[in-house]
Sequence to fold (389 residues):
Amino acid sequence: MKKLISSLILLAVLILGSASYSWAASAENSNTGKKSQNEALAFDGDFAVVWNDNHANLNNFTFAAANTGFNYIGSGCQVYHHRHWSNTEPEIETGNAEATANTTNFQNTNLTAIEGEGGAAAWASNSDTGRKSNNSAWAIAADVVFVGNFNHARINNFTVAMANTGFNSIKGRKGSIKSGNAEAAANTTNTQNTNYTMVSGDDNYEILANGGVEAKNSQTGKGSENIAIALGINANVVVNKNQAKLNNHTVAGANTGFNTISGGTKSGSIETGDASATANTTNTQNTNVTAISDDGEVSATAQNEQTGKDSTNETIAVNVNANVVVNENQAKLDNHTVAGANTGMNSEQGSGKIETGDASATANTTNTQNTNMTSIGGLNCLPSFPCGN
Fold:
């Protein structure tokens, strides 16, 4: 039996949180001179980037064989009995044979958990601007999460199990053959390209009380030109791209038969044991489980108040809250799953008796490919997400 576990597990856990998570940025044009030109830009950004790029190329040959057969007794066998040589009745009795071959492959698994508390904060203001001055204030707060999982797997498996207690032969006047039980099991299990991604947090952009995103024109001068822009961005992007190519050959064979008694004039007996063969191939590729429970709310405010005579004032507020999940899967599988069991093909040339055991052969192939489970909003985890919540 051979068990091969070749795994590339990338665990990326980013905890973007605690009291120091929120950064504050502020910019202000205040008491500007006559005909002056002033720009104020406040930018606060929280960024998390996870990039997993995995490549797996495996060639496995797993072989198990058990044999108690292939026994032979030829003609003319004699034993010394009661002071003279005499022909005896030959007998072959074999024990049981059991063979098990297992191949297990586990590649390209990415576990990513990103948690954030609090949001970015930015504030920009034009106040007490001078006469005929030109003032601009920008407040930008961005919270961006990007997770990219890129997996490539190429697997070739040859898993063979053979068990034999048969192929026994007696050549003589009379004899008996009794073969034992034979059991063979060949199992191939492949799991490739599995991505678990969870993004959670409370990224709230609130105005005034906790900072937030605010741009404001206040007490602007006569004939001045003022523009205030507030932009709040909360974006979560998850990209899963998987490619899997598998070739599986899973073979199990069990035999207790192919026994022969020949060359005699008297009857012989052949009794075979049971034969059982089981071949299983299980493939699971390209599974993406994505849970985004980020309940962040983007709120941006732009305001004009107490503007001067003949002044030109413009305020722009933009809120962006985006969740993007992209799953691209490609799978190509070639499976050959074979199970064979035999207790027959026995031969007795006299008037003897042949009694065979039971023969059982089972071949199973199970494929699960290109599974995407996505939840956005409200859930901490999907049912199959291994986060323990």
Summary: The CA atoms of residues 61 and 158 lie 5 Å apart. The longest strand covers residues 37-67.
